[in-house]
UniProtKB/TrEMBL annotation:
Residues 2-238 form the ABC transporter domain. This is ATP-binding cassette domain-containing protein. PANTHER family: INTERMEMBRANE PHOSPHOLIPID TRANSPORT SYSTEM ATP-BINDING PROTEIN MLAF, PROTEIN TRIGALACTOSYLDIACYLGLYCEROL 3, CHLOROPLASTIC. One of its GO terms (molecular function) is ATP hydrolysis activity. Pfam families: ABC_tran. InterPro entries: AAA+_ATPase, ABC_transporter-like_ATP-bd, ABC_transporter-like_CS, P-loop_NTPase. Keywords: ATP-binding, Nucleotide-binding, Transport. Gene3D superfamilies: P-loop containing nucleotide triphosphate hydrolases.
Amino acid sequence: MIELVNIKKGFGEKVILPDVSAVMETGKVNLIIGSSGSGKTVMMKCMVGLMEIDGGKILYDGQDFTNMPEQDRKNIRRQIGMLFQGSALFDSMTVEQNVMFPLDMFSTGTLKEKKARVMECLERVQLKDAAKKFPAEISGGMKKRVGIARAIVLNPKYLFCDEPNSGLDPQTSLLIDKLIKEITHEFNMTTVINTHDMNTVMESGDHIVYMYQGKKQWEGSNKDIIFSKDEKLNDFIFASDFLRDAKEMRQMEMFQEKDWRNKLKKS
Ligand SMILES: Nc1ncnc2c1ncn2[C@@H]1O[C@H](COP(=O)(O)OP(=O)(O)OP(=O)(O)O)[C@@H](O)[C@H]1O
Ligand SMILES: [Mg+2]
């Protein structure tokens, strides 16, 4: 579990996160949603220690990440996997070499062991056949999957993904979501995803934090969203007439289902 306790972050005079508290739950896909510029990436960078916070604290399974000695921080960082916005693969390296990179940096295993681990991860994301290809030779969805393989190669306890679906078609996006969800449950990881993608919200949102202008505006699950009365959240999620209609229909379905169950219970 990762806890954010009253974290504050700004750049010069400009305050980005005035005071955010939230919990990222273990074994769940935790989503941070919100419009462009609401502070999602800044919050994620603060969480992983790529940016220093100005106030408050961040706890990793109860350990104070903000105020711990540098060596302890490094130990936590080693348990963090990150998929950056836009995949951020090394263009001059093959898929296999990209996934090998964190092992070369941090693992003490033999070359044979490292290669076996790389293949295991590539197999997990169904990319074994693309091992010798370069990033320029594979599709956007495949690049994301290489990014995921690289993020999990060191068996992280915590997985962070910044916009894993940006630039992908809806079906490929759903496959990426499914993969992240499966891996999270399989290895009981604490996963945090920044996203704009409404399919992700509806399919994978075990726990959702909605950010509005740097503040936590709403928190709940994808099921709660259907019944939420929060106006800002509704404006953000159900932005079109089409989606507003879909929400109403879903609400009606859920009410009818409840009604049916009550009737069945009574009969
Ligand atoms: N290094 C930086 N220096 C100064 N301001 C920054 C820096 N990084 C981010 N900001 C500002 O912080 C605010 C939040 O940015 P952030 O990237 O977190 O938004 P976001 O919610 O991730 O948006 P998007 O959905 O477009 O990725 C923006 O106003 C941005 O200009
Ligand atoms: Mg961002």
